[in-house]
Design a protein that fits this description.
With 294 residues, the protein is mainly α. 77% of the residues lie in helices and 0% in strands. The longest helix is centred in the middle third of the chain and has 23 residues, at 138-160.
């Protein structure tokens, strides 16, 4: 193989790995990284690279495992993903899926036993979600996804912090709130995928209960916003702005119901979700700093 061919092969492999995770940059990598950096608190700027790497590696593991289960669904619903787009064969993707398990576990063990525990939990939840079909019903899908997301947050926060063996009390509260918040609003990501989900018999909340699902966004986002502003002690101006924005996003899910509109609504929800992940930092840098100064 010539150097040019080798370079092309490496380039194609990197593009393939990127395609496996590109749709989750705004929904997983960005909010989880922000959460870890403001909640830990950050030990050093150098740790940012470790946090992003660890999140991306485990996200790659989950996404590859998810996409080898039913590539036909992706062909109908998300044709730009690497398997239906022809960047990688189903057999090679399956090899990649299982080879990522030891890679994730070994890389996590270099940080701490606690980070390894988060990695093991993600591995087991990935198995349960995909191979054991937890994704086929909205209740188990929301529950498993929220628990998995919490494991991402816990592992990333441990890596970012001064002590990789423990979460501070504020961080633990933030993770528990995130589980409840994500479990009850995750359907925001399912509205845009109804056609593909319906074709494979997956009963997400927008398919099983379409009207209540949209009402849950209209009611749930402002309710969670009120709760979070109280827990993290936001000032009046920031609280009103955050609650008002969540109300607009929730109202958009109620009013605009086309697939195209749901895609944009999901992006707006992702922005709300990312901001919600910054609120522990608001508490830390405003309230704790004020207490320390006084």
């Amino acid at each position: 193989m010539s150097a040019l061919d080798f370079g092309r092969a490496i380039s194609k492999s990197l593009v393939t790995l990127h395609l496996f995770t590109q749709n989750d940059i705004l929904t997983t990598i960005v909010p989880t990284t922000l959460f870890a950096l403001v909640t830990a608190p950050l030990c050093s700027p150098y740790r940012c690279l470790h946090v992003v790497w660890w999140i991306w590696l485990h996200l790659l593991h989950f996404n590859v495992a998810n996409q080898v289960i039913d590539p036909a669904e992706d062909g109908r619903n998300k044709a730009n993903r690497p398997i239906p787009a022809g960047y990688i064969s189903l057999r090679d993707a399956a090899y990649l899926r299982w080879s990522l398990v030891p890679i994730c576990l070994i890389s996590s063990a270099f940080y701490s036993i606690q980070v390894l525990g988060a990695s093991i939990a993600i591995t087991l939840l990935t198995l349960w979600y995909n191979e054991f079909k937890a994704h086929s019903h909205w209740f188990s899908k929301n529950l498993m996804t929220s628990l998995g997301y919490a494991c991402f947050q816990a592992g990333a926060t441990l890596i970012a912090g001064r002590d990789m063996s423990r979460l501070e009390p504020d961080a633990l509260v933030a993770v528990l709130l995130s589980i409840a918040m994500f479990a009850t609003t995750l359907q925001a990501q399912d509205f845009k995928d109804q056609e593909g989900d319906r074709s494979i018999g997956r009963r997400t909340l927008p398919i099983a209960h379409p009207s209540p699902a949209r009402v849950s966004m209209f009611v749930g986002l402002p309710m969670w916003s009120v709760c979070l502003t109280r827990v993290w002690g936001m000032d009046a101006f920031c609280s009103v702005a955050f609650i008002f924005y969540s109300g607009l996003v929730g109202l958009r899910f109620m009013v605009y119901k086309t697939t195209q509109a749901d895609r944009l609504s999901c992006k707006l929800y992702s922005l709300w979700f990312s901001v919600a992940h910054l609120l522990p930092g608001y508490w830390r840098y405003f309230h704790e700093a004020r207490t320390y100064i006084s």
